[in-house]
Specification:
Blueprint lengths: L5 H14 L6 E7 L6 H13 L1 H8 L5 H19 L2 H7 L2 H18 L10 E7 L4 E6 L1 H6 L6 H12 L3 H19 L14 E3 L1
Parallel strand pairs: 1-2, 1-4
Antiparallel strand pairs: 2-3
Helix pairs in contact: 1-9, 2-4, 3-4, 8-9
């Protein structure tokens, strides 16, 4: 997993701070290493494959003793479970939709848990990154969504995903903040007596 260094965190915080001088909106940067543990999927796949181990053994060795078959099945189950718990193996084995669903759910849960829907002007925007799933979600509160179509964020999301895939997390996040900030500044310019209600630092969940 990608470890977020202090220098990267400071750059993100500074970029958000400077951006929010130009807009009344609040931007929150969030990153998680993984949106789900997927243990239940590993267990399900392992169990299903293990059920067929005795049939395979009996096909090649019809006279094999029941005890030997059981031991081989148990050993196979353990080895498969270890294999499917290797992050990269599971990532390439399962359909992409499984990871997208988990990461999307985590993004909206995080928005709610952090209380980002409680700002005074309902103008919070969260850039959420799930590193294992290589998934980016931009979640906007009601005042933002009423004025800016979610499709407008897609170009920023696509570019950020490519940066994450190419191990350019810092570059991708800073670029995304600047692009989102430019859109927010255009639609929600800074207001008199604007207050900074949310943290500018990168939040790790």
């Amino acid at each position: 997993m990608h470890q977020i260094g202090n220098e990267t965190q400071q750059k993100i915080e500074k970029t958000i701070f400077e951006m929010e001088k130009k807009t009344s909106s609040e931007l929150v940067a969030v990153v998680t290493q993984k949106s789900g543990d997927y243990l239940y999927i590993s267990l399900l796949i392992t169990s299903l494959i293990s059920l067929f181990i005795p049939f395979g053994l009996l096909f090649f060795a019809p006279d094999m003793e029941a005890k030997t078959i059981f031991e081989a099945q148990l050993l196979g189950f353990m080895l498969l479970l270890l294999l499917f718990n290797v992050p990269k193996v599971l990532f390439y084995l399962l359909p992409k939709s499984v990871f997208v669903k988990a990461a999307k759910l985590k993004a909206y849960e995080t928005f709610r848990i952090l209380g980002l829907q409680k700002t005074s002007n309902y103008q919070a925007v969260m850039i959420f990154v799930s590193l294992y799933e290589k998934y980016i979600e931009i979640v906007a509160d009601s005042a933002i969504s009423a004025k800016i179509d979610n499709a407008l964020w897609q170009k920023t999301i696509d570019a950020f995903v490519e940066n994450v895939k190419n191990d350019k997390f810092e570059e991708g996040y800073l670029q995304a903040i600047n692009e989102v900030g430019a859109i927010l500044t255009q639609h929600f310019p800074i207001e008199k007596h604007d207050k900074n209600e949310l943290p500018d630092r990168l939040i790790e969940v």
